[in-house]
Amino acid sequence: MLIARMCGILLLVVLAAGSIAVQAQERAGTEAYVRRMTEATVMAWPMLAKMFETTQVFADVQLLVSDGQRAWLMNARGGQELDMPAVEALGLAFEYRRFEKIEWQGRPAVFIGLGRDLPEVELQRLKHPEAVPELFDLATHEAFHFYAEDDWARGPLSERSTLYPAVVEPRLYRNRVIRHLLAATRGELDALGRASYWYRRWLNEFADEAERIRDTDRTEGSARYVESVAQLLAMGLEPRSPEWEARLLRQLSPLGRADYLAVDHESYTLGLLAGYLLDRRRLDWLPRVAQGETPLGLLLGPVAPISDSPDELLGRRIQESLDGVNDQAAELLEPFLQRFNDPASRHLLVPGTAMKGSFGSGHSFRLAGMAETIETGVDALFALKGGRIGFRAATVATQVKASCGRKDLYWLLALTEADFQGGAHGRLRVRRDGLDVDIPYPARAIDSPRSWCVQV
User: Fold this and answer.
1) What are the residues whose beta carbons fall under 8 Å from the beta carbon of 361, sequence distance 6 or more?
2) Rounded to whole angstroms, how far apart are CA atoms 384 and 372?
3) Separation of CA 299 from chain center
4) Which of 112, 243, 350, 366 has the lowest tally of Cβ within 10 angstroms?
5) What is the Cα–Cα distance from 399 to 415, expressed in whole angstroms?
6) Is the model's pLDDT at 143 over the cut of 60?
7) In what helix (H) or strand (E) does residue 134 lie, and over which residues does it extend?
8) Is the pLDDT of residue 7 over 90?
9) 124 C-beta neighbours (distance < 10 Å), count
10) Which residue, among 432, 202, 222, 252, has the nearest Cα to 336 in the 3D structure?
11) Are 283 and 301 in contact (CB under 8 A)?
12) Measured at the alpha carbon of residue 37, what is the angle toward residues 390 and 43, in degrees to the nearest 5?
């Protein structure tokens, strides 16, 4: 009995020691990752602030990161660890890649969550001495959105949706543009002319889509370009040097091996490629994008089109992929639309201004005859008066409209009459279909008996 008890005590000691060792290793991994982020920030952001008038904000923006246990602050001048209680008071979510626009001590900042454990694939990738942390890329991208684009002109029809069911032609045309722009980065003759041919076909044949996606092409395309520039600067490369160009071509090459199946996914790559080709011409193009033009339009608008033959293999591949996208979308859209269009259903209107931090989505669809856009695979969090609403791979509708006393981009939840019954303790609680609702009981909208307004 004594020996067994001693063995048990020894086992507990060994397990405790192992746990302490794992925690120490995790802390060391996080500290090393934060050092790499700080080095990248100090290396890249001061130079980025001087490269373009539009990116001067990076001289002042701060980057705050935390894993929920410790927190660090960095900027163009250096970095330091912070007292955790002050960071906890901000009420942030610390999951990996969660981000939010914040102020720190009265100055503009971006928060990025490190998560409790950094992904193993990211830690393995950073074993290469030239690798740049992906969270630095994310921070640069979002900082550009938050502080460089905050006063940009916006169009009245701005959205990211694709018509449902998705058809092959607009996706094929934009994929062809991407491949010809890649050819242009390699110096291939006539590549820009052939890109212009497909760009003009897309503009003429799908003018509605071109108008809807204009702002996304502008904002996401420019942010992706700036993110890529910062990554090269973080590697210590001299802008426009032979080493810069060689590394750039290696980074761009994989873009031609992807098939892009959603119009907003194409926006990132088109802006990145067009931005680099404009930069090679020494054009100060970002201020013109801020005023309403697109990087792609600035690049290809003056270029005479050169007729190009279709890529039938690419077309068949995209068609097969879109068939799968449409099938998957139908599985999500049909039950949602059944609830949404049911005369007995109720629509809970959640203002977009209440969204807290980052959000993600799978696809955005516009259906004929519907004023709303349908979003699938949505992850988001809304902070409301006395409650919260969370989405996890949810299907919801969105619409810009005046309701509930304000004009906003509303996220519309399709709820049943049963969801509204029983409101225990004056609250509405729903947990199903990717929705997690726990808020004070909403009020019926004056302008629509099926619409209900959350308290903000």
Assistant:
1) 375, 376, 377, 378, 379
2) 23
3) 24
4) 243
5) 17
6) yes
7) helix 134-143
8) no
9) 10
10) 432
11) no
12) 135
* Residue 420, number of CB atoms within 10 A of its CB: 16
Note the pLDDT tens digit of each residue in 367-381: 999 999 999 999 999
Tokens of 448: 């629509």
Output phi, psi for 410, to 5 deg.
Answer: -95, 140
User: pLDDT value at position 451?
Assistant: 96
- Give the Cα separation of 10 and 12 in Å (integer): 5
What does the pLDDT look like over 107-123, one tens digit per residue? 999 999 999 999 999 99
User: What is the CB neighbour count within 10 angstroms for residue 293?
Assistant: 17
How far from 99 is each of 39, 185, 278, 347, 362, CA to CA, in Å? 20, 33, 30, 28, 18
Retrieve residue 198's tokens.
């497909």
CA distance 279 to 282: 5
Chain centroid to CA 358: 8
Strands in 41-172 per DSSP E: 62-66, 71-75, 78-82, 99-104, 107-113, 162-164
In total, the chain counts a number of residues equal to 456
What is the token pair recorded at 381? 């969090």
For residue 276, count CB atoms less than 10 angstroms from its CB and return exposed for 0-12, middle for 13-18, buried for 19 or more: buried
Residue with tokens 């952001």: 45
Residues 375, 395 contacting (CB under 8 angstroms) = yes
Burial class (CB in 10 A: 0-12, 13-18, 19+), 320: exposed
Q: Please name the amino acid found at residue 262.
A: A
Q: What is the pTM of this model?
A: 0.90
In the chain, what is the greatest distance between 2 CA atoms, to the nearest angstrom?
A: 91
Q: How many CB atoms sit inside 10 A of residue 440's CB?
A: 16
Q: Cβ distance 193 to 247 under 8 Å?
A: no
- What pLDDT score does 8 carry? 54
Domain residue extents for the chain:
24-132, 162-310, 340-453
Could you tell me if 442 and 423 are in contact, meaning their C-beta atoms sit under 8 angstroms apart?
no
Regarding predicted confidence, which is higher, 159 or 176?
Answer: 176
